[in-house]
Amino acid sequence: MVLQWTLKTFDELTVHELYKIMRLRMEVFIVEQQCAFLDADDNDQKAWHLCAWKENKLVAYTRIFAPGIMYKEAAIGRVVNAPPVRGTGVGKALMERSVLAVYQLFGRIPIKIGAQLYLKKFYESMGFVQDSDIYLEDNIEHIKMILP
Q1: Bridge partners of 77?
Q2: Could you count the other beta carbons within 10 Å of the beta carbon of residue 135?
Q3: How far apart are CA 14 and CA 8, in angstroms?
Q4: Mean per-residue pLDDT for 78-84?
Q5: The pTM is what?
Q6: Is the pLDDT of residue 19 over 80?
Q7: Closest listed residue to residue 32, CA positions, set 44, 40, 23
Q8: Which one of 11, 32, 65, 89 has the lowest number of neighbouring Cβ atoms within 10 Å?
Q9: Mean pLDDT of the chain
Q10: Strands 129-130 and 57-65
Q11: CA distance 67 to 31
Q12: Residue of 83, 7, 78, 94 whose CA lies nearest to 38
């Protein structure tokens, strides 16, 4: 699958790109996962936004934070794949690109994520290790994980 990758600050995003990002996040996190939460949490403005595009359609996304914003470590969050690309390797490519983006932006430093518990093995396969007990966020079991 041929994807076009973009990495932009909030101010560099076009209104059309931002709309597609927010739509994908709402489609998955709010509608599909049935979580009523305020996705627009005032952190997007502090993040870098990594997008994977296929034929002008957003198919995968993460937001990336410098150390000291979400955690003392750099952070990757709002990891999301569009339903049609699940199981195709796009999720793994997304996380690999996200980790590389952190290293390019901030150097080779630890990265922390808040992962849904059911994805623990996926993140472990990429080198992340559990860094917290299980906790509930928006009624979904999560754990903190770190890539040392």
Answers
A1: 63
A2: 12
A3: 10
A4: 96
A5: 0.95
A6: yes
A7: 23
A8: 11
A9: 96
A10: unpaired
A11: 31
A12: 78
CA distances from 104 to 18, 27, 32, 114, 130 (A): 23, 30, 33, 21, 24
- List domains and CATH numbers for the chain: 4-147 (3.40.630.30)
126 three-class SS = coil
Cα–Cα distance measured from residue 87 to residue 67, given in angstroms and rounded to the nearest whole number: 31
Three-class secondary structure assignment of 50-115 = EEEEECCEEEEEEEEECCCCCCCCEEEEEEEECHHHCCCCHHHHHHHHHHHHHHHHHCCCCEEEEE
- Residue tagged 């906790």 (tokens): 135
Over residues 89-115, the pLDDT tens digits come to: 999 999 999 999 999 999 999 999 999
Tokens 């990429």 belong to 126
d(CA 81, CA 16): 18
Q: Which amino acid is at 103?
A: Y
Residue 18, both tokens: 């931002």
Instruction: State the Cα angle at 125 between 121 and 129, rounded to 5°.
Output: 70
Total number of residues shown for the chain = 148
